[in-house]
Here is the input.
Amino acid sequence: MNFNSHTDLVVRVAVELVNALTPGEGHGRAVPPSGERAAVANSALRAVYPSHREVTEAEAGELAATAARLRAVFEAVARGDLDAAAQQVNDLLEETHARPMLERHDGEPWHLHFHGPGGTMAGDWAASCATGLAMVLGSEFGDRLGVCTAPHCDRVYVDVSRNGTRRFCSTTCQNRVKTAAFRARGRA
Here is the structure.
């Protein structure tokens, strides 16, 4: 299940930013943003865009604030509150003045951006991620945003499976839950 190539990428960026820049638990371990925030933000952006330019500490701070707001969208969907998720996205869209614009750069063909020229790096990503999440929420796949249901993990994901039954952020968490259930059955 894919939305479109650019939307898929900006939604993946939203997931990476939330998982890298918001504190919580991941795979059974505490996940405070470790190290320099800029290094963490760089890693998150380069997971989707390998040649993304270096992020400054100030930009990383702005990205962390955006990530916290994006997390609220995933959490609202996981609670089944699509209205709250939509309101969060609408607030971001309005604040960032998100708007579609065709761009061509770096030898790529024309493609859709969700921000105009001249914005800040963090503001442009906020507009793009908010627009990508709006496109997901405004489709029949609006319930495909989630928060991992494994114990001691609150990382987010987008369910792109055919049947839409994903419950875990990763195979690691899925295997942890299955192993715990297997061991519990063995003890019983």
Observations:
- The mean pLDDT is 91.
- Residues 35 and 120 are 23 Å apart (CA to CA).
- The first strand starts at residue 25 and ends at 26.
- Strands lie at 25-26, 29-30, 101-103, 111-113, 145-147, 156-158.
